[in-house]
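Bench log, entry 3. Co-assembly request; chain sequences pasted below exactly as received.
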Amino acid sequence: MAQRSLRDALLGAAATEFHENGYAATGVAAIATRAGAPKGSFYNHFPSKDALGVLIVEQYAGSRGTDILLDPASEPLDALRRHFDYLRSDLARDDFARGCLLGNFAAEVARSGTRVDTAVRDSFTAWLDALAVPVGRLAEHGALPAGGRPDEVARALGSAWEGAALLAKATGSAGPIDDFFAVTFPRILGLGRPDLPSHRLGG
Amino acid sequence: MAQRSLRDALLGAAATEFHENGYAATGVAAIATRAGAPKGSFYNHFPSKDALGVLIVEQYAGSRGTDILLDPASEPLDALRRHFDYLRSDLARDDFARGCLLGNFAAEVARSGTRVDTAVRDSFTAWLDALAVPVGRLAEHGALPAGGRPDEVARALGSAWEGAALLAKATGSAGPIDDFFAVTFPRILGLGRPDLPSHRLGG
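Structure output for the full assembly:
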């Protein structure tokens, strides 16, 4: 296998192994085996599991549809709905069994002082900042309930989403995700009534 | 050390190691070392790390103030506030660094088919059921917004709490917990205005 494609194979294998089994439980040998690579080749491509973990976190964070939130042409409430619908579709592909990779890694490595820990924290901070952009635009339009700065409302939404992804994984049920769309999202944003998510309307 | 106290020492050490370092990263040797016990003695007391994990999950689940939710003499909104204040105080003892043990374990082992996985799922289910008791009482009193069954509202609250604990751990900040009390909790329950948590009022 060419060096380039071997590196890509190791990256792809690591993404799957880390997401399915967690950070600590995934060894370099398992990643190499899944990639069909000799174990010794791993260190030709990555200096450490920690360094590879950082790449996987950055790759995952870049695939979460954050661009939807930052599009100035979109209507802010619609951008928020489409963003969370995008995340839901991603989690639903494996029936919510793997959960959010960032959340999983945070549960394992947060406050460990490792590079993966820092990458997870930076990714969450960037995501919460991106959520605050459409929330801030809603606030400017006077479309939010009184009380709660946009960054606080955005962090409340983001936290609730991560919790829903975790509980869906833990309980083996899409229920917590459905509740996010039917209860948490509309109420945090003061929409005043249970709001049907677009996927329930066939959208 | 007597057999009984050695077992207790191993249980206490396991609770700390699992909470600080996660399930996969914690080995039997580390637990024995922290307990000041010979490694070989571990298996005199527990058949496996999985079996010990189940005991730790059950012990942790039993220490989360669920009784506050089930007290029929309490006012339901007050019971919910006091329950989450209790959880907040517990997380604040280590500056939110360890997060919720059940959430951490769920992120690692959910859907693994192990006994720890089952114990985590059962503990979360029991907690969400307990949250639904005061929420149901609020609904009976007509004190909840229209839309959303009590079990859905309870699950939304519980999910949002777990997400706040996870993001507080991930970002190294109490902010997500503060947002839960100031934004998420009052809005999910339709309290209509940001509600100051009792600890901000010196309660």
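Chain A has ten helices and no strands. Residues 193-203 of chain A have pLDDT under 50 and may be disordered.
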